[in-house]
Amino acid sequence: MLFSLAAIWYLTLRNGLLCQASSSASNDLAKDFPLPEIQRFWGSYTPYFSAQPYTPPPSNCRISQVNIIQRHGARFPTSGATTRIKVAIKKLQSATHYTDLPLAFLVNYTYSLGKDNLVPFGALQSTEAGEITFKRYQQLISQDNLPFVRSSSGQRVVDSATNWTAGFSFASGHVYNPTLSVILSEDLNDTLDDAMCPNAGSSDLQTDAWNAIYGAPIAERLNAQAPGANLVAADISNLIPLCAFESIAQNATSPFCALFTPAEFAQFEYFADLDKYYGTGYGQALGPVQGVGYINELLARLTGKPVSDNTQTNRTLDASPVTFPLDRTLYADFSHDNQMVAIYAALGLFNQSTPLDPTMPDPKRTWITSRLTPFSGRMVTERLSCRKKGSGGHLVKSGEYVRILVNDALQPLTFCAADKHGLCTLSNFVRSQGYAINNGEGDFEKCFA
């Protein structure tokens, strides 16, 4: 099982035998993983890294509650992606000959990746995330107040949740042993998956437009180097990810990485940005509403009040103090990248002054998928109790505050008048979430109308 495999990898790493396998609690994972330059352009297939160093709260503030939502760890390609990848590989291998040395490996190449499930590195990512969480927030934990852990029911998500609990337990010297308490079925109401809006559109129009622009020249180049391959632009967005998938799965540089330039990887990154932005993000009319249920659960935890929601929540589970307690100080939920994007958009994070242009990347955009939802990416919402300092203090008054970090990067939260430390008053934060409080302001009904 992946749980056991993660524990083995984790202990091996601790003994110094896998120096290149992962990050540590204090070091950026990307610095240790192969290909440190191009891996930041792997979009949603990027290994987790801290977008910024974690910033502790001001000295006059004490963290009183932590809410984590985290993507599963690195995985094999999905079943659908596997089919598309194999088609592109078959085209390359049908070439009559290769005129460029980096393509020569295709003569004896056999595709060997699995489907859907975590790779060992992905299992390790979640284990380490659990360790980091314990070290950062251990003051909130006691035997009577262990983390409350939920997961969507996809196997890679469940495995990530149990790997996280293993890492948390290991970091505590097995003094605190949280368990996965609730698994939300992806066939029923589920705030940790984006499967409840059948009328939502896709990002195909936008990604196809960018594919035609950036993929066509690459396909032309590869066809010249592999006569008879007959690649088309769309094949490029299936071949570039092989660099990421094989490198992560095999902990070694995939030969596919040498087929593309750093500039071409950056173009693929924009393909991934468009996919998420127009999939469940701001560019999709029914994208943000898919994050409303989780936000209403988050507000319930922050305020200690019952969940009020008429969208994706499982009302039976959320009404029970056993399956949705309101008295914990640390909550950890495990989810998918598309759902986390919907939550960001519903919250108001990473909003762009203008929509992403499918024909022209904006170098100043903040919507960059590798920083939003890398493998094992996470959003952390901290509730803080702050006291007023003297004349030099930054707080106007004592009270409860909220701040949000995405992959350790402190978010500005301009939508609730945050101060320079990223702190909003709890009351302002709640008021800022009118879209969720109002159940998507009619958008959820459009999912089914």
TrEMBL record:
Signal peptide (UniProt feature, chain positions): 1-19
Q: Does the keyword Secreted apply?
A: yes
Active-site residues, as the UniProt record annotates them: H72 (nucleophile), D337 (proton donor)
Q: Name one Pfam family in it.
A: His_Phos_2
Q: Name one GO molecular function term.
A: inositol hexakisphosphate 3-phosphatase activity
SUPFAM superfamilies, per database record: Phosphoglycerate mutase-like
Swiss-Prot/TrEMBL keywords: Disulfide bond, Glycoprotein, Hydrolase, Secreted, Signal
A GO CC annotation given for this chain: extracellular region
Which compartment or compartments is the protein found in?
Secreted
Q: Its principal location?
A: secreted
Per its record, the protein catalyses: 1D-myo-inositol 1,2,5,6-tetrakisphosphate + H2O = 1D-myo-inositol 1,2,6-trisphosphate + phosphate; 1D-myo-inositol hexakisphosphate + H2O = 1D-myo-inositol 1,2,4,5,6-pentakisphosphate + phosphate; 1D-myo-inositol 1,2,6-trisphosphate + H2O = 1D-myo-inositol 1,2-bisphosphate + phosphate; 1D-myo-inositol 1,2,4,5,6-pentakisphosphate + H2O = 1D-myo-inositol 1,2,5,6-tetrakisphosphate + phosphate
The record ties this protein, via InterPro entries, to: Acid_Pase_AS, His_Pase_clade-2, His_PPase_superfam, Histidine_acid_Pase_euk
The record's PROSITE patterns line, in alphabetical order, gives: HIS_ACID_PHOSPHAT_1, HIS_ACID_PHOSPHAT_2
Q: Which cysteine pairs are joined by S-S bonds?
A: C61-C386, C197-C447, C243-C257, C416-C424
The record's subunit annotation is:
Monomer.
Know the name of this protein?
Phytase A
* Source species: Hebeloma cylindrosporum
Upper taxonomic classification of the species? Eukaryota, Fungi, Dikarya, Basidiomycota, Agaricomycotina
